[in-house]
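Team,

Forwarding the record for the chain on the shared tracking sheet. I've put the sequence and predicted structure together so nobody has to dig through attachments.
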Amino acid sequence: MADKRKRRNIPDENNNGGKPNSWFSLTWIYIIIAGFLIYLVFSDTSIPTKEVEYSELQTYIDSGYVDKINFITNENIAEVSLIDDSVVIVKVLGEAGAKQYSKKPQLSSKVPSAEKLDDFLTAYTAKTGNTISVKYEERKDYMGTFLWSFGPIFIFILFWIILSRRMAGGGGGIFSVGKSKAQVIEKGSSKMKVTFKDVAGLSEAKQEVQEIVEFLKNPSKFTTLGGKIPKGALLVGPPGTGKTLLAKAVAGEANVPFFSLSGSDFVEMFVGVGASRVRDLFRQAKEKAPCIIFIDEIDAVGRARGKNPSFNANDERESTLNQLLTEMDGFGSNSGIIILAATNRADILDKALLRAGRFDRQISVDLPDVHERKEIFEVHLKPIRLADGVDLDLMAKQTPGFSGADIANVCNEAALIAARRNKKAVDRQDFMDAIDRIIGGLEKKNKITTAEEKKSIAIHEAGHASVSWLLEYANPLVKVTIVPRGKALGAAWYLPEERQLTTTEQMLDEMCSLLGGRAAEQVVLGRVSTGALNDLERATKMAYSMVVYYGMSEKLKNISYFDSTQSDYSFTKPYSDKTSEIIDSEIKKIVQEQFERAVKIIEENRDKHAELADILVEKEVIFADDVTRIFGPRPWKTRMDEITELNEKQEEEKPKKARKTKKKQEETDE
């Protein structure tokens, strides 16, 4: 197995990312040889000599310090050996040079020419009668000549060998560009620690992928009956819901090799690279079957052919998709290779990719409901030091629409807030502040507002709170604040009802509560402001959806102009200009009716609204308890309360059902 990994250059934690186990590779041999050659060229292993001027050499000769001279004719350099006299050695070379004294030449001097040196020595002999031995020789640097002659050739050969190794596949060279970039997690690897226990919520999705685990663990159980193992499963859901985590859990539970890569890993600037990488990926997968291939963000290559938003066909992406389609329908049906893919844009995927026989199953990974959010909180709160009084049920209710990634962010943000406040544990208020910060942004308490502006904001936000409290289907209020957050000067927090179906009355009540802020401004102040921009935008879009999509208007009943198959880049509309005028009039009518309804509610409860606004100006933040004290408790039971009561009853009945099932089993055994 290890030899195969080396040939395929597949990373493995046991052999350091696909590299040879031995540190002494061919590259190190090249480095050692190059270092040795450099050492030979620049090192000087001889005894160090002292360089002197020619005039100084003449002085030493006249003084009788010189014993013999070795003259290098091709360089005009005289290598001088001094007489064996310690006093002379110290005088010429100094104390440091005397310690390195050797019989070899101790001085060297650049001589103008051999003739001048001969003339000077002849004159010295005639004057003193002493003769200095002179030896003439021509010296050649064979190593330097060899290196300068053949060194460039060796360097070129070395460069070519290294380049050839890289192009052959090692190190990501130009010829390895067609190799798969998938990260391989081997069977039994320490990285494969994620199991279904680590995936909170997603009970339905886990139940569907559990069958995939059974296919991988015991394929003969299904194939003996003539069944075929599914080739692929597509995980579809919003970002942050845990699609990638679920795929890792499948690999961890099945304990099989896991190939992980992104759809963008197939895309490259070279033509044909994407298709080559697809082929190489499936070749590796066949060698390691049974295994799992996980392609994240598959819409990068799986977009429907001929529907490129750039209005210019991308042949490279389409050829990559064609190769992927071929490979998915080409390998043996019972080869044990299962492809998992994740996307949050399943509507733009090619139909050929989604047909039976390729991605046989589409597993929906939706946003968690209130009970699943509680389970996710329990997972992410394990490493956090919690204070007493942290209510997970309340936090789960406070975070509707949050994904698993959002909840992880809430837990982390709460820990950071508690640390900034120098707390020893994270308490309930830290979590509430973290949720507020993620939803509304950072508080801007230093933002300057006048008393009149503050009063106007309080009246606006109190209008939202009053209207929503007095409407049956409006979302229950949590708190209201006039402290600026992000771009908002004030905000009201609600507990949105997580409905599966929404009726006309429910949408109208929500629209009326959105318009409560502007209605309060008109009733109390007699003027309106720009602070209702977001409210008007949401109310208008809601009215547009009622008329155009849901067929909830009087003049366009039971008619929907929504087309789920239509491209986002279409320039045509599915209705006439006359119908457009009717749609505009119906939207205006619905919005105006709900605004007048909000005005009427504010006028009927003006004193209570004024009291709520005054408290808001004073405290800056009010909670549902303050609204209850002024308006009284709401007489309607929320959908959240009904679901909670139903689940509690089911939990109480579980032991009874278990006992009945056990009793029936015992009677059957008897």
